[in-house]
What we know:
The chain is mainly beta. Helix content is 15%, strand content 49%. The protein is built from seven helices and 22 strands. Strands 1-4-5-6-7-9-10-13-14-17-18-19-20-22 form a 14-stranded antiparallel β-barrel. A hairpin with a 4-residue loop joins strand 17 and strand 18. Helix 1 packs parallel to helix 7. The protein is elongated. The N and C termini lie far apart (79 Å). The relative contact order is 0.18.
Amino acid sequence: MKFTKITKKLVLAAAAVMTVLSANAEGYQINSQSSRQWGMAHTGTALKLGAESMLFNPAGMVYMNSKFDVSLGSILIKSKVNFEQPGYKHETDNPLSTPIFGYFGYKPCEKLAVGISITNPAGNSMVWGDNWVGATHIQEVSLKAFNVQPTISYKINDIVSVGAGLMIDFGSFSQEKGLVAANSFAPLGALAGQLAQMNPAFSSLGALPGMINSFSNQIPVGIELEGSSKVALGFNVGILVNVSPKVTLGATYRSKVKLSVEDGEAELDYANDAAESVVAAIKSFDTTPLQGMLPQETLATIKGTQTQLTTMGLLDNSEFKASMPIPSIFSIGIAYKPNQAWTLTGEAQITGWSAYDKLDITFKTAAGEIVQSSVKDYENTVAVRLGAQYVVSDFWTVRAGAYMDTPPVQMDNYNPETPSANSYGVTAGATLNPMKNLAVDLSVGYLRGEKTTGSYQNGSFVADYTKSAIMPGVAVRFQF
Protein backbone atom coordinates (compact mmCIF):
# COMPACT_ATOMS: atom_id res chain seq x y z
CA MET A 1 0.00 0.00 0.00
CA LYS A 2 1.30 3.46 -0.93
CA PHE A 3 1.30 6.52 1.26
CA THR A 4 1.88 9.30 -1.27
CA LYS A 5 -1.39 11.03 -0.34
CA ILE A 6 -0.73 11.09 3.38
CA THR A 7 2.79 12.46 2.87
CA LYS A 8 1.53 15.22 0.57
CA LYS A 9 -1.10 16.19 3.13
CA LEU A 10 1.51 16.33 5.88
CA VAL A 11 3.83 18.45 3.76
CA LEU A 12 1.03 20.87 2.89
CA ALA A 13 -0.14 21.00 6.50
CA ALA A 14 3.32 21.79 7.77
CA ALA A 15 3.65 24.50 5.14
CA ALA A 16 0.34 25.96 6.30
CA VAL A 17 2.01 27.08 9.52
CA MET A 18 3.71 29.74 7.43
CA THR A 19 0.51 31.77 7.29
CA VAL A 20 0.08 31.97 11.06
CA LEU A 21 -0.39 35.73 11.26
CA SER A 22 -2.82 36.11 8.39
CA ALA A 23 -6.22 37.46 9.19
CA ASN A 24 -9.30 38.61 7.41
CA ALA A 25 -7.73 40.78 4.68
CA GLU A 26 -9.53 44.13 4.65
CA GLY A 27 -11.29 42.67 7.70
CA TYR A 28 -8.25 43.05 9.93
CA GLN A 29 -8.25 46.75 9.22
CA ILE A 30 -11.03 48.14 11.41
CA ASN A 31 -12.81 51.18 9.95
CA SER A 32 -15.22 51.75 12.81
CA GLN A 33 -13.61 54.06 15.35
CA SER A 34 -16.48 56.46 16.03
CA SER A 35 -20.15 55.71 16.59
CA ARG A 36 -21.10 59.19 15.37
CA GLN A 37 -19.15 58.85 12.12
CA TRP A 38 -20.07 55.20 11.65
CA GLY A 39 -23.57 56.53 11.03
CA MET A 40 -22.06 58.39 8.03
CA ALA A 41 -20.12 55.36 6.67
CA HIS A 42 -17.06 56.32 8.73
CA THR A 43 -16.40 59.52 6.79
CA GLY A 44 -14.53 62.39 8.44
CA THR A 45 -11.52 63.47 6.38
CA ALA A 46 -13.12 66.82 5.49
CA LEU A 47 -15.21 67.26 8.65
CA LYS A 48 -14.62 69.13 11.92
CA LEU A 49 -15.27 66.47 14.55
CA GLY A 50 -13.69 67.87 17.68
CA ALA A 51 -11.53 65.33 19.53
CA GLU A 52 -12.54 62.53 17.13
CA SER A 53 -10.69 64.33 14.34
CA MET A 54 -7.51 62.86 15.84
CA LEU A 55 -8.26 59.71 13.86
CA PHE A 56 -10.04 61.03 10.77
CA ASN A 57 -7.93 64.16 10.15
CA PRO A 58 -5.90 65.72 12.98
CA ALA A 59 -6.12 69.09 11.27
CA GLY A 60 -9.82 69.24 12.19
CA MET A 61 -9.32 68.97 15.96
CA VAL A 62 -8.45 72.67 16.30
CA TYR A 63 -12.09 73.52 15.50
CA MET A 64 -13.26 72.14 18.85
CA ASN A 65 -16.03 74.44 20.14
CA SER A 66 -15.15 73.85 23.81
CA LYS A 67 -11.99 73.73 25.89
CA PHE A 68 -12.33 69.99 26.59
CA ASP A 69 -13.86 67.36 24.32
CA VAL A 70 -14.13 63.69 25.35
CA SER A 71 -15.59 60.76 23.38
CA LEU A 72 -15.79 57.13 24.55
CA GLY A 73 -17.47 54.17 22.89
CA SER A 74 -17.39 50.95 20.90
CA ILE A 75 -18.60 49.50 17.61
CA LEU A 76 -19.67 45.88 18.07
CA ILE A 77 -18.96 43.52 15.17
CA LYS A 78 -20.93 40.33 14.55
CA SER A 79 -19.61 38.78 11.36
CA LYS A 80 -19.85 35.50 9.50
CA VAL A 81 -18.38 33.89 6.41
CA ASN A 82 -20.17 31.25 4.34
CA PHE A 83 -18.01 28.63 2.63
CA GLU A 84 -19.18 26.38 -0.18
CA GLN A 85 -17.67 23.57 -2.23
CA PRO A 86 -19.59 21.04 -4.36
CA GLY A 87 -21.60 18.95 -1.89
CA TYR A 88 -20.26 20.83 1.17
CA LYS A 89 -21.32 24.00 3.01
CA HIS A 90 -19.95 25.53 6.18
CA GLU A 91 -20.32 28.77 8.16
CA THR A 92 -18.10 30.45 10.72
CA ASP A 93 -19.19 30.82 14.33
CA ASN A 94 -17.44 34.09 15.07
CA PRO A 95 -17.67 35.65 18.52
CA LEU A 96 -18.86 39.20 19.03
CA SER A 97 -15.91 41.58 18.57
CA THR A 98 -15.81 44.74 20.67
CA PRO A 99 -13.26 47.25 19.35
CA ILE A 100 -13.10 50.34 21.54
CA PHE A 101 -12.22 53.98 21.02
CA GLY A 102 -11.54 56.94 23.27
CA TYR A 103 -10.61 60.55 22.46
CA PHE A 104 -9.57 63.32 24.84
CA GLY A 105 -9.01 66.79 23.35
CA TYR A 106 -7.89 70.05 24.95
CA LYS A 107 -7.97 73.49 23.31
CA PRO A 108 -5.85 75.99 25.28
CA CYS A 109 -6.27 78.79 22.73
CA GLU A 110 -8.04 79.66 19.49
CA LYS A 111 -5.35 78.37 17.12
CA LEU A 112 -4.10 75.30 18.97
CA ALA A 113 -5.55 72.01 20.20
CA VAL A 114 -3.84 68.93 21.63
CA GLY A 115 -5.14 65.54 22.62
CA ILE A 116 -4.65 61.82 22.92
CA SER A 117 -6.67 58.90 21.57
CA ILE A 118 -6.81 55.13 21.89
CA THR A 119 -8.30 53.04 19.11
CA ASN A 120 -8.27 49.55 17.60
CA PRO A 121 -6.87 50.08 14.08
CA ALA A 122 -6.77 46.35 13.33
CA GLY A 123 -8.35 43.20 14.63
CA ASN A 124 -10.06 39.98 13.70
CA SER A 125 -11.99 37.20 15.43
CA MET A 126 -12.84 34.20 13.29
CA VAL A 127 -13.88 30.69 14.31
CA TRP A 128 -14.23 28.05 11.60
CA GLY A 129 -14.26 25.05 13.94
CA ASP A 130 -11.91 22.19 14.74
CA ASN A 131 -12.80 19.58 12.12
CA TRP A 132 -14.22 21.32 9.08
CA VAL A 133 -12.84 20.67 5.59
CA GLY A 134 -10.39 23.58 5.71
CA ALA A 135 -9.09 22.97 9.23
CA THR A 136 -5.49 22.59 8.04
CA HIS A 137 -5.69 26.16 6.75
CA ILE A 138 -7.43 27.75 9.75
CA GLN A 139 -9.55 26.74 12.73
CA GLU A 140 -9.60 29.90 14.80
CA VAL A 141 -7.84 33.25 14.88
CA SER A 142 -7.94 36.28 17.17
CA LEU A 143 -5.98 39.44 16.42
CA LYS A 144 -6.10 42.63 18.49
CA ALA A 145 -4.10 45.77 17.74
CA PHE A 146 -4.22 48.98 19.76
CA ASN A 147 -3.14 52.48 18.85
CA VAL A 148 -2.35 55.30 21.27
CA GLN A 149 -1.95 58.63 19.49
CA PRO A 150 -0.88 61.93 21.07
CA THR A 151 -1.92 64.65 18.61
CA ILE A 152 -1.45 68.35 17.92
CA SER A 153 -3.63 70.52 15.69
CA TYR A 154 -2.89 74.09 14.57
CA LYS A 155 -4.93 76.66 12.67
CA ILE A 156 -2.60 78.62 10.40
CA ASN A 157 -5.36 81.07 9.43
CA ASP A 158 -9.10 81.04 8.83
CA ILE A 159 -8.60 78.96 5.69
CA VAL A 160 -5.95 76.33 6.47
CA SER A 161 -5.28 74.12 9.47
CA VAL A 162 -2.82 71.25 9.91
CA GLY A 163 -2.38 68.45 12.38
CA ALA A 164 -0.10 65.56 13.26
CA GLY A 165 -0.10 62.60 15.62
CA LEU A 166 2.43 60.04 16.81
CA MET A 167 0.98 56.53 16.46
CA ILE A 168 2.09 54.08 19.16
CA ASP A 169 0.86 50.60 18.21
CA PHE A 170 0.94 47.26 20.02
CA GLY A 171 -1.15 44.11 20.01
CA SER A 172 -1.59 40.39 20.54
CA PHE A 173 -2.88 37.40 18.63
CA SER A 174 -3.70 33.73 18.92
CA GLN A 175 -4.39 31.15 16.26
CA GLU A 176 -5.23 27.47 15.91
CA LYS A 177 -5.02 25.28 12.82
CA GLY A 178 -4.66 21.62 11.95
CA LEU A 179 -1.33 20.16 10.86
CA VAL A 180 -2.62 16.76 9.71
CA ALA A 181 -5.93 16.37 7.88
CA ALA A 182 -8.66 14.13 9.22
CA ASN A 183 -8.40 10.48 8.05
CA SER A 184 -4.81 11.00 6.90
CA PHE A 185 -3.63 8.05 9.00
CA ALA A 186 -6.29 5.66 7.67
CA PRO A 187 -4.02 4.11 4.98
CA LEU A 188 -1.34 3.53 7.61
CA GLY A 189 -3.86 1.86 9.89
CA ALA A 190 -4.95 -0.48 7.09
CA LEU A 191 -1.32 -1.46 6.35
CA ALA A 192 -0.57 -1.98 10.05
CA GLY A 193 -3.55 -4.33 10.33
CA GLN A 194 -2.42 -6.32 7.31
CA LEU A 195 1.14 -6.63 8.61
CA ALA A 196 -0.10 -7.79 12.01
CA GLN A 197 -2.09 -10.56 10.36
CA MET A 198 0.68 -11.56 7.96
CA ASN A 199 3.56 -11.86 10.40
CA PRO A 200 3.55 -12.42 14.19
CA ALA A 201 6.65 -10.20 14.41
CA PHE A 202 4.37 -7.25 13.72
CA SER A 203 1.60 -8.22 16.14
CA SER A 204 2.14 -4.99 18.10
CA LEU A 205 0.83 -3.09 15.08
CA GLY A 206 -2.55 -4.70 15.49
CA ALA A 207 -3.63 -2.02 17.95
CA LEU A 208 -3.03 0.85 15.50
CA PRO A 209 -6.21 0.47 13.38
CA GLY A 210 -8.43 0.80 16.46
CA MET A 211 -6.44 3.73 17.80
CA ILE A 212 -6.61 5.54 14.47
CA ASN A 213 -10.34 4.83 14.22
CA SER A 214 -10.88 6.61 17.55
CA PHE A 215 -10.13 9.94 15.90
CA SER A 216 -11.08 9.06 12.31
CA ASN A 217 -13.16 12.20 11.64
CA GLN A 218 -11.04 14.58 13.70
CA ILE A 219 -7.89 16.57 13.03
CA PRO A 220 -5.23 14.32 14.65
CA VAL A 221 -2.71 17.08 15.34
CA GLY A 222 -3.05 20.84 15.38
CA ILE A 223 -0.96 23.78 16.49
CA GLU A 224 -1.78 26.68 18.77
CA LEU A 225 0.18 29.90 18.54
CA GLU A 226 0.11 32.95 20.78
CA GLY A 227 2.16 36.09 20.85
CA SER A 228 2.29 39.76 21.74
CA SER A 229 3.93 42.37 19.57
CA LYS A 230 6.59 44.90 20.43
CA VAL A 231 5.59 48.56 20.47
CA ALA A 232 5.83 50.07 16.97
CA LEU A 233 5.70 53.70 15.90
CA GLY A 234 4.06 55.54 13.02
CA PHE A 235 2.50 58.92 12.28
CA ASN A 236 -0.76 60.52 11.21
CA VAL A 237 -0.79 63.88 9.43
CA GLY A 238 -3.54 65.95 7.85
CA ILE A 239 -4.59 69.24 6.32
CA LEU A 240 -7.99 70.94 6.20
CA VAL A 241 -8.89 73.77 3.82
CA ASN A 242 -11.97 75.97 4.15
CA VAL A 243 -12.61 76.71 0.49
CA SER A 244 -15.74 78.68 1.38
CA PRO A 245 -18.20 78.90 4.27
CA LYS A 246 -20.00 75.91 2.73
CA VAL A 247 -17.18 73.78 1.29
CA THR A 248 -14.25 72.12 3.08
CA LEU A 249 -11.51 69.93 1.64
CA GLY A 250 -9.37 67.55 3.64
CA ALA A 251 -6.50 65.13 3.18
CA THR A 252 -4.81 62.82 5.65
CA TYR A 253 -2.13 60.14 5.68
CA ARG A 254 -1.64 57.40 8.28
CA SER A 255 1.70 55.66 7.90
CA LYS A 256 2.31 51.93 7.78
CA VAL A 257 3.16 50.33 11.10
CA LYS A 258 4.86 46.94 11.32
CA LEU A 259 3.90 44.84 14.32
CA SER A 260 6.59 42.31 15.27
CA VAL A 261 6.31 39.30 17.54
CA GLU A 262 9.66 38.27 19.03
CA ASP A 263 8.77 35.60 21.59
CA GLY A 264 5.62 33.91 20.37
CA GLU A 265 4.80 30.46 21.73
CA ALA A 266 3.80 27.39 19.71
CA GLU A 267 2.21 24.26 21.12
CA LEU A 268 0.92 21.10 19.44
CA ASP A 269 -2.61 19.95 20.22
CA TYR A 270 -3.69 16.32 19.69
CA ALA A 271 -7.24 15.07 19.10
CA ASN A 272 -6.85 12.59 21.98
CA ASP A 273 -4.25 10.43 23.70
CA ALA A 274 -4.55 7.84 20.94
CA ALA A 275 -3.61 10.41 18.29
CA GLU A 276 -0.51 11.39 20.26
CA SER A 277 0.42 7.71 20.64
CA VAL A 278 -0.06 7.03 16.93
CA VAL A 279 2.20 9.92 15.96
CA ALA A 280 4.86 8.69 18.40
CA ALA A 281 4.57 5.15 17.02
CA ILE A 282 4.97 6.29 13.42
CA LYS A 283 8.04 8.41 14.24
CA SER A 284 9.76 5.60 16.11
CA PHE A 285 8.78 2.70 13.84
CA ASP A 286 11.78 0.76 12.48
CA THR A 287 11.27 0.05 8.78
CA THR A 288 14.33 -2.22 8.50
CA PRO A 289 12.35 -5.48 8.93
CA LEU A 290 10.11 -4.40 6.06
CA GLN A 291 12.93 -4.45 3.52
CA GLY A 292 11.90 -6.86 0.78
CA MET A 293 8.34 -7.08 2.08
CA LEU A 294 7.16 -3.72 0.73
CA PRO A 295 8.04 -1.81 -2.44
CA GLN A 296 10.92 0.63 -2.05
CA GLU A 297 8.62 3.49 -3.02
CA THR A 298 6.29 2.66 -0.13
CA LEU A 299 9.22 2.42 2.31
CA ALA A 300 10.58 5.75 1.11
CA THR A 301 7.18 7.35 1.56
CA ILE A 302 6.86 6.00 5.11
CA LYS A 303 10.31 7.41 5.95
CA GLY A 304 9.32 10.73 4.44
CA THR A 305 6.23 10.77 6.64
CA GLN A 306 8.41 10.06 9.67
CA THR A 307 10.64 13.00 8.76
CA GLN A 308 7.63 15.30 8.39
CA LEU A 309 6.20 14.25 11.76
CA THR A 310 9.60 14.68 13.42
CA THR A 311 9.88 18.22 12.01
CA MET A 312 6.35 18.94 13.14
CA GLY A 313 7.23 17.73 16.62
CA LEU A 314 10.09 20.24 16.82
CA LEU A 315 7.51 23.03 16.75
CA ASP A 316 5.96 21.87 20.01
CA ASN A 317 6.76 24.28 22.87
CA SER A 318 8.99 26.33 20.56
CA GLU A 319 9.25 30.09 20.28
CA PHE A 320 8.87 32.02 17.03
CA LYS A 321 9.22 35.50 15.63
CA ALA A 322 7.34 37.13 12.77
CA SER A 323 5.96 40.47 11.66
CA MET A 324 3.00 41.83 9.72
CA PRO A 325 1.99 45.34 8.63
CA ILE A 326 -0.90 47.54 9.59
CA PRO A 327 -1.05 49.24 6.18
CA SER A 328 -0.85 52.94 5.39
CA ILE A 329 -4.05 54.87 4.61
CA PHE A 330 -4.33 57.96 2.40
CA SER A 331 -7.68 59.73 2.33
CA ILE A 332 -9.03 62.78 0.55
CA GLY A 333 -12.48 64.19 1.17
CA ILE A 334 -14.91 67.01 0.56
CA ALA A 335 -17.70 68.31 2.79
CA TYR A 336 -20.58 70.54 1.75
CA LYS A 337 -22.99 72.38 4.07
CA PRO A 338 -25.83 73.85 2.00
CA ASN A 339 -27.38 75.20 5.22
CA GLN A 340 -27.08 74.85 8.99
CA ALA A 341 -29.10 71.63 9.09
CA TRP A 342 -27.46 69.57 6.35
CA THR A 343 -23.91 68.22 5.98
CA LEU A 344 -22.94 66.12 2.96
CA THR A 345 -19.55 64.50 2.56
CA GLY A 346 -17.67 62.08 0.37
CA GLU A 347 -14.17 60.68 0.40
CA ALA A 348 -11.83 58.20 -1.22
CA GLN A 349 -9.39 56.05 0.72
CA ILE A 350 -6.35 54.18 -0.59
CA THR A 351 -5.00 51.48 1.71
CA GLY A 352 -1.39 50.42 1.12
CA TRP A 353 -1.85 46.65 1.33
CA SER A 354 1.02 46.12 -1.14
CA ALA A 355 3.27 46.35 1.94
CA TYR A 356 2.12 42.82 2.76
CA ASP A 357 4.17 40.98 0.14
CA LYS A 358 5.19 37.96 2.20
CA LEU A 359 5.18 36.50 5.67
CA ASP A 360 8.35 35.04 7.19
CA ILE A 361 8.19 33.05 10.41
CA THR A 362 11.26 31.85 12.28
CA PHE A 363 10.71 29.03 14.77
CA LYS A 364 13.39 28.59 17.42
CA THR A 365 13.52 24.83 18.03
CA ALA A 366 15.83 22.38 19.79
CA ALA A 367 17.31 21.51 16.38
CA GLY A 368 17.93 25.15 15.46
CA GLU A 369 15.92 27.74 13.58
CA ILE A 370 13.24 26.66 11.13
CA VAL A 371 12.40 29.50 8.74
CA GLN A 372 9.20 29.33 6.76
CA SER A 373 8.00 31.86 4.23
CA SER A 374 4.68 32.33 2.42
CA VAL A 375 3.85 34.66 -0.44
CA LYS A 376 1.05 37.18 0.15
CA ASP A 377 1.39 39.66 -2.74
CA TYR A 378 -1.48 41.81 -1.50
CA GLU A 379 -2.61 44.70 -3.68
CA ASN A 380 -3.54 48.26 -2.68
CA THR A 381 -7.26 48.79 -2.23
CA VAL A 382 -9.64 51.69 -2.83
CA ALA A 383 -12.69 52.51 -0.72
CA VAL A 384 -15.31 55.17 -1.50
CA ARG A 385 -17.49 56.55 1.31
CA LEU A 386 -20.52 58.85 1.27
CA GLY A 387 -22.26 60.34 4.28
CA ALA A 388 -25.07 62.72 5.15
CA GLN A 389 -26.16 64.39 8.38
CA TYR A 390 -29.33 66.32 9.21
CA VAL A 391 -29.83 68.31 12.41
CA VAL A 392 -33.50 67.79 13.27
CA SER A 393 -33.43 69.92 16.41
CA ASP A 394 -31.22 70.83 19.34
CA PHE A 395 -32.16 67.47 20.85
CA TRP A 396 -31.33 65.11 18.03
CA THR A 397 -29.44 64.63 14.76
CA VAL A 398 -29.76 61.81 12.21
CA ARG A 399 -27.21 60.35 9.79
CA ALA A 400 -26.87 57.90 6.91
CA GLY A 401 -24.04 56.60 4.75
CA ALA A 402 -22.85 54.05 2.23
CA TYR A 403 -19.47 52.74 1.15
CA MET A 404 -17.67 50.33 -1.16
CA ASP A 405 -14.34 48.59 -0.58
CA THR A 406 -12.16 46.43 -2.82
CA PRO A 407 -10.18 43.29 -1.82
CA PRO A 408 -6.37 43.15 -1.45
CA VAL A 409 -6.11 39.38 -1.90
CA GLN A 410 -5.40 37.83 -5.28
CA MET A 411 -7.92 35.18 -6.27
CA ASP A 412 -5.25 32.54 -6.93
CA ASN A 413 -3.85 32.97 -3.41
CA TYR A 414 -7.14 32.93 -1.55
CA ASN A 415 -7.81 30.82 1.52
CA PRO A 416 -10.19 30.84 4.50
CA GLU A 417 -7.74 32.93 6.52
CA THR A 418 -8.26 35.80 4.07
CA PRO A 419 -11.92 35.73 2.87
CA SER A 420 -11.92 39.02 1.01
CA ALA A 421 -14.28 40.44 -1.62
CA ASN A 422 -15.72 43.56 -3.17
CA SER A 423 -17.72 44.75 -0.17
CA TYR A 424 -20.65 47.12 0.21
CA GLY A 425 -22.05 48.68 3.34
CA VAL A 426 -24.91 50.89 4.48
CA THR A 427 -25.03 52.72 7.79
CA ALA A 428 -27.39 54.87 9.83
CA GLY A 429 -27.16 56.72 13.10
CA ALA A 430 -28.48 59.36 15.44
CA THR A 431 -27.23 61.60 18.22
CA LEU A 432 -29.32 62.49 21.25
CA ASN A 433 -28.47 65.56 23.33
CA PRO A 434 -30.21 65.08 26.69
CA MET A 435 -28.34 68.01 28.22
CA LYS A 436 -26.08 70.84 27.10
CA ASN A 437 -22.69 69.17 27.54
CA LEU A 438 -23.65 65.54 26.88
CA ALA A 439 -24.31 63.68 23.61
CA VAL A 440 -25.15 60.02 23.04
CA ASP A 441 -24.25 58.60 19.62
CA LEU A 442 -26.07 55.54 18.28
CA SER A 443 -25.32 53.83 14.98
CA VAL A 444 -25.68 50.62 13.01
CA GLY A 445 -24.14 49.30 9.81
CA TYR A 446 -24.52 46.29 7.58
CA LEU A 447 -21.71 44.96 5.38
CA ARG A 448 -21.94 42.31 2.68
CA GLY A 449 -19.30 41.02 0.30
CA GLU A 450 -19.87 39.73 -3.20
CA LYS A 451 -19.83 35.96 -3.60
CA THR A 452 -16.22 35.23 -4.46
CA THR A 453 -14.54 32.15 -5.90
CA GLY A 454 -10.94 31.78 -4.81
CA SER A 455 -8.28 29.12 -5.13
CA TYR A 456 -5.27 28.24 -3.01
CA GLN A 457 -2.15 26.06 -3.23
CA ASN A 458 -2.04 25.91 -7.04
CA GLY A 459 -5.76 25.31 -7.31
CA SER A 460 -5.90 22.41 -4.85
CA PHE A 461 -8.36 24.22 -2.57
CA VAL A 462 -11.12 26.03 -4.47
CA ALA A 463 -14.28 27.36 -2.86
CA ASP A 464 -16.93 30.07 -2.91
CA TYR A 465 -17.00 32.57 -0.05
CA THR A 466 -19.62 35.08 1.06
CA LYS A 467 -19.11 37.31 4.06
CA SER A 468 -21.39 39.67 5.98
CA ALA A 469 -21.44 41.63 9.21
CA ILE A 470 -23.81 43.69 11.30
CA MET A 471 -22.18 46.41 13.39
CA PRO A 472 -24.07 48.44 16.01
CA GLY A 473 -22.31 51.22 17.89
CA VAL A 474 -22.72 53.46 20.90
CA ALA A 475 -20.68 56.31 22.37
CA VAL A 476 -20.97 59.18 24.80
CA ARG A 477 -19.38 62.59 24.26
CA PHE A 478 -18.73 65.32 26.79
CA GLN A 479 -17.84 68.97 26.15
CA PHE A 480 -16.95 71.44 28.84
